[in-house]
Structure formats: structure tokens, C-alpha cells
């Protein structure tokens, strides 16, 4: 996104003066109980007994040489970042998931980056780095006990052992049994991690891939297993440079939709853009036209009902009025990517601006769709409200007033079902409504900079106290990225009892010397304007 649009969107969201923005602190977050960390191998748990392929556990690695903990230094998220050791402070970059692959071999994933440890050759030397999983033997490790709660870890491909050099670096050297090659493993509670597969799905680097850089990232599952991904201000693949960066300039469309062929297909080549006919702006990949007199249309949360998708849309005039509409899409069969679009106006939604119905659309199976909205009450603090419509009548909404469902919306304190920070989303999974919140991410290096979850058994609340589940560590030019648009995606079940969350990043966030204008040599890196994924064990929120 360019400097101009960055500032416009940031001002809109941070000020909460306009409604219908990317998210709606009044409820103070509760930090989850700290895991049982230790400072010596003698106090460590040792490895659990792994029996079946795919079994996994979360661990702190402890170097016998100096009791330092294994880590990926500097919160690195890139491939080929080197491993190291340091004093344990509890960050995700100092925690690892061991997954048993059979025959005493393990895959070792760093929770902070979602990448796995690998032995790679660099200038005739094998180096210990992190990399995206590729299934090679250089990413497999034989972990063997050697006594007194110590273990050795030897790479299957290179035959070299993970070794601490005493100066903060983890190396690979021939195994001799010296103390620098011995490690303790201390088991920690299940913890959230960055989902590298999802991050790479959104890191679209080919001109043929349509929308390649954008924010938002709402998902709408379809009955046949496909998933629609809704984007806002998007760059087209025609704007990519040969190295996968973006040419400087404005994005090509204010919104778009990607059609993922299945919930398990994370190959971006297989996920095309939806298109429309007769685009008002001659932008067939912009699914929702901008209305006359407005600057943008920003669609967001949506739901499929009886062969149609219903999606909230914000129609915004910068510095002026905002209107809410509901976009209706007729679901096409697979392979037919040009869809029919209809703009509809809903009583109680489109004729008011008091509540922004942007926080979530959920279909729990009781015959209704529950739509959550928010209203700013002061800086970075919102009240949350809920409306619903019958699956048999999507055009007629009713609104919770604190005691009953009424024909008109009510933004009184009595009608609210919860409170939140400004960046909020609500999904539904396993019989619970799940609220996701982010610390405000529009200013220089905010602290904290975390993700929180809370739950409710009813759409009308109450929600539990927010629990911190993950810290956002995306960085741009040495500072935290601007981050926003939390989203909950319960449809992506990976078989590990984990919930998928996403958020967007958007270049700099106002630090001195870090301009919103991200151009260097007429390029800007696309990874700093894309959607990022996090997996959270349901056990972290009592589910």
C-alpha cells in the first residue's frame, strides 16, 4: 500500500471517528499462566515418550555447556536465519515443537517463525538455520538420550550434531560427546505458533496469481469445501518485479476475492481470483464496485447460506459519510470464477451508522446467522453488539437489546454483549463464540503487541476475560510492522485441535525514519503488506 493510502486507513482506524473500519480497551487482558520453565538441565522434564508418528510436544532446549536456551535470535521470520542460544525469556522464538517422524527422527519447528531447523551447506560449511518445511532429510534430527537428562541431536543428512559454541551461536559439528553437544529438553504447555504454510500461501510472487498483496483476509467456507478469501486494497500480479517485490505505486483494486479450491490446498498457484462482468471501474477482479460519490468499497466478513454468500460491505467517502450494505453473491460451481454480484440494503444496517456490523458472521446451526458489530466508545475501546437473521430470510435482521431480539438496533450499554479493543473479530467453533483482539498496532513499536482470545457459550455473551495467546513480531526496517484486521478461521481444521487466526501487516507504523513510503529502487517488499497466520491450541482457551 502506498504512503497516501496507509495514512488514510491508519487515521480512519485509529481515530475510530468513521465507522466500518478494520475493527471495532476496555476489558483488560489476562496473561495465561506461565509455563514451567527451568534454568538447568537437572530440573528439566526430559523428552516425553513418543510412540506414534505425528505425536508432538512443545519444548525449551537447554545447553549443557552454559544452561542457555536454544532460540532463533532477533525474532527472525525469514528462511535461512541462523539458530542460537540465549537467556530464556519465554518468547515464542525460544520455544520449539518436536514432532516424531518415526525411527527416532524428529522435525523441530520454532514456534515464533513456524519454520523448521535444517542443516544447509554455506561456503563449504554445514550451518544450522530455519527454513520452510520441504520434507528433506536435512530437516530431520535423530535425538538420542546419553544419560543424566541429556541428549544429542544429529542431522540425518549431514550427520552433524547441534552444538553450542558458548558465544550465542548454535553450530553443526561432528559428534564427539563434549558438553557443548549435549542438550536438555524441558516440556512446556502447548502453545501458539506462526503457521508458515498459511503465511507462504499469502506470499504470492507470480504475475499469474492475481491479487498478490493486500490486507483484510476474511474467509467464507462453502459447502463443497472451497473457501473464499476476501481482500481489501489489493495489488495485482502485474505489479510484481522479477524478484517478487512490488513496483511502487497505488494498488489496482479496492477489494478482491480469492477462491481456494479446498481447505487443505495451500498452494497459491491453485487459488484464482474471482471476477465480475461489467465492472463500473473496468476492474474485473474488483468484486464490489465503488458506489458513486464514495472512494472505496471495503467488504469483509461473510457467510454462505442456501447457495448464496452474504458479505458485509463498507462504502466510504474519505472525510465524509460511510454507508453499510450487504453484498449477495450467487455461488458458482468450481471452475466458473465469474460470479454474479448484487448490492442490497438492509433495514437496521444500511439506514444507520451507530453500530458497524463488521466484527463477524457466524452460523452455529440453529437456523440463524449471528452478526456481530461494534461501536467506539472512546479511544481503542468498543462495545460489541449482535444481530441475527434466519437462514430462511437473510433480508430481515433483528437486534439484541439486552433482553430480546428487536426490529431496530440498540447501542445502549444494556444491549452490548461484550467490550473489546479496536481490532476485534468474532468466530464460532466447537459450540463457542470466540473473540479475537489485537493490541493497537498503528503506532511506533507498541508494547504489548499481542493477540488475545476470549469465549462465550452464547451470542449474547458474556465473554470470558481475554487470554494472551501470541505476540506479533513482524518487523519492517528494524521496527514492528503496522498490524490490524484480526480474523478467526475455524473451518481450517488441521487435525491437531488448533484454531487458525490471521492478521494483516502494512509496512511501517510511524517510527522516526521509517516512512510509510516503502519504496527503494522503485520497489517495495510485498511481504510487508500481506496476511499472516497463527495456530492456537484450543487448550489455551479451555476448549
UniProtKB/TrEMBL annotation:
Transmembrane segments: none annotated. Residues 93-171 form the Ricin B lectin domain. SUPFAM superfamilies: Ricin B-like lectins. It holds the Pfam family RicinB_lectin_2. This is Ricin B lectin domain-containing protein. It comes from Mucilaginibacter hurinus.
Amino acid at each position: 500500500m502506498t504512503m497516501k493510502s496507509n495514512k488514510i486507513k491508519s487515521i480512519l482506524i485509529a481515530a475510530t471517528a468513521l465507522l466500518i473500519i478494520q475493527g471495532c480497551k476496555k476489558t483488560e487482558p489476562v496473561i495465561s499462566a506461565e509455563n514451567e520453565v527451568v534454568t538447568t538441565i537437572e530440573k528439566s522434564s526430559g523428552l516425553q515418550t513418543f510412540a506414534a508418528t505425528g505425536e508432538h510436544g512443545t519444548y525449551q532446549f537447554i545447553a549443557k555447556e552454559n544452561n542457555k536456551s536454544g532460540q532463533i535470535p532477533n525474532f527472525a521470520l525469514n528462511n535461512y536465519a541462523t539458530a542460537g542460544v540465549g537467556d530464556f525469556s519465554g518468547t515464542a522464538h525460544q520455544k520449539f515443537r518436536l514432532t516424531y517422524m518415526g525411527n527416532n527422527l524428529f522435525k523441530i519447528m520454532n514456534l515464533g517463525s513456524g519454520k523448521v531447523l535444517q542443516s544447509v551447506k554455506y561456503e563449504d560449511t554445514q550451518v544450522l538455520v530455519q527454513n520452510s518445511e520441504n520434507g528433506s532429510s536435512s530437516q530431520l534430527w535423530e535425538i538420542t538420550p546419553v544419560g543424566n537428562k541429556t541428549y544429542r541431536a544429529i542431522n540425518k543428512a549431514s550427520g552433524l550434531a547441534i552444538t553450542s559454541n558458548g558465544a550465542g551461536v548454535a553450530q553443526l559439528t561432528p559428534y564427539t560427546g563434549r558438553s557443548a553437544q549435549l542438550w536438555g529438553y524441558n516440556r512446556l504447555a502447548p502453545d501458539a505458533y506462526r503457521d508458515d504454510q498459511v503465511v507462504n500461501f499469502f506470499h504470492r510472487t507470480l504475475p499469474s496469481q492475481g491479487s498478490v498483496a493486500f490486507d483484510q483476509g476474511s474467509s467464507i467456507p462453502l459447502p463443497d469445501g472451497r473457501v473464499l478469501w476476501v481482500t481489501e486494497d489489493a495489488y495485482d500480479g502485474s505489479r510484481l518485479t522479477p524478484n517478487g517485490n512490488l513496483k511502487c505505486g497505488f494498488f489496482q483494486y479496492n477489494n478482491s476475492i480469492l477462491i481456494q479450491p479446498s481447505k487443505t490446498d495451500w498452494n497459491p498457484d491453485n487459488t484464482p481470483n474471482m471476477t465480475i462482468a461489467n465492472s463500473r471501474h473496468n476492474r474485473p477482479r474488483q468484486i464490489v464496485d465503488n458506489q458513486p460519490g464514495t472512494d472505496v468499497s471495503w467488504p469483509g466478513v461473510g457467510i454462505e447460506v442456501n447457495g448464496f454468500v452474504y458479505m458485509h460491505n463498507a462504502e466510504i467517502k474519505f472525510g465524509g459519510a460511510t454507508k453499510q450494505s450487504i453484498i449477495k453473491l450467487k455461488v458458482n460451481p468450481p471452475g466458473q470464477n465469474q460470479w454474479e454480484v448484487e448490492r442490497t440494503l438492509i433495514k437496521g444496517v444500511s439506514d444507520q451508522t451507530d453500530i458497524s456490523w463488521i466484527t463477524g458472521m457466524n452460523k452455529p446451526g440453529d437456523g440463524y446467522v449471528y452478526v456481530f458489530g461494534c461501536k467506539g466508545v472512546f479511544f481503542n475501546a468498543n462495545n460489541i453488539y449482535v444481530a441475527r437473521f434466519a437462514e430462511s430470510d437473510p433480508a430481515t435482521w433483528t437486534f439484541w437489546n439486552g433482553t430480546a431480539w428487536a426490529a431496530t438496533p440498540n447501542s445502549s450499554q444494556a444491549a452490548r454483549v461484550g467490550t473489546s479493543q479496536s481490532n476485534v473479530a468474532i468466530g464460532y467453533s466447537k459450540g463457542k463464540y470466540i473473540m479475537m483482539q489485537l493490541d493497537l498496532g498503528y503506532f511506533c513499536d507498541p508494547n504489548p503487541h499481542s493477540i488475545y482470545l476470549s469465549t462465550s457459550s452464547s451470542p449474547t455473551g458474556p465473554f470470558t476475560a481475554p487470554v494472551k495467546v501470541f505476540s506479533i513480531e513482524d518487523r519492517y526496517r528494524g521496527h514492528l510492522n503496522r498490524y490490524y484486521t484480526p480474523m478467526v478461521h475455524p473451518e481450517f481444521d488441521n487435525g491437531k485441535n488448533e484454531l487458525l487466526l490471521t492478521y494483516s501487516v502494512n509496512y511501517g507504523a510511524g517510527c522516526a525514519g521509517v516512512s510509510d513510503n516503502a519504496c527503494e529502487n522503485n520497489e517495495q517488499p510485498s511481504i510487508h503488506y500481506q496476511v499472516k497466520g497463527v495456530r492456537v491450541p484450543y487448550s489455551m482457551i479451555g476448549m
